[in-house]
Amino acid sequence: MKINLKEKREFEIIQAAFKVFSKHGFHEAKMEEIARKAGIGKGTVYEYFSSKKELFQEMIRRMIEVYIEGAKGIAAGKKTTREKLIAFADYHGKFLQHHIDMTETTGFKYDNLSVGMKQWLREEQRKIHDFLLAIIEGGIKNQEFRQEIDIETAALTIMGAINLNYAKQIYFDQKKAEDIDPSALIDLVFKGIGNSK
Description:
The protein is mostly helical.
C-alpha cells in the first residue's frame, strides 16, 4: 500500500516525538525539538497535532497497536501453546527493551492522557488479556493445560511473570532482552512449583 505525503510526514513527526519524549519525558519535551528532529518547522507539527498532549497520545496509541499486532503475529507462527508463550515472552522482552527510555522518562502516566485515551488504553489492555486467554484456551483444548484451571487467573499470572522477569533482568541486572531465555519461566508455568505427591 502506497503511503501518501501526509501519512509519511505524520509518521516522521511521531518518530521524532518518540526520541524526544524518551529523552526528556512528557513535561520537559519541547515541540520545537520534535520539529527539528523531524526536519520541519514547529508550525508544521501543529498542522498535524494541535498540542503536545495530542501528539504524545497518538504516539502511545501507535506503540500499543504495533505491540498487539506484533504479539498476535508472533504467536500465530507457532504450533504448541508452549512455543506460543515462549515466542510472546521473547517478543514482550524485546519490545520492553526498545522502549526502555520511554518507560523510564514518562512512565506512561495517566495524568498526561485524556479521559477518552484512558478508556481506549483499558480496552487495549483487555485485548492483550484476551489474546493470552485465547492461547490458554488453546492449551486446554490440545491438552497441554489441565481442564480445570482458572483461565483468567492463569492469564494474569503468565503476563505478570513475563513482565516482571524481563523488567527485573533489563532494568536491574542490565541484561539485553536478546540474551534472556524465557523458556525456563514458561516451563515453570507448565510444571508449577508445588510438590506433587
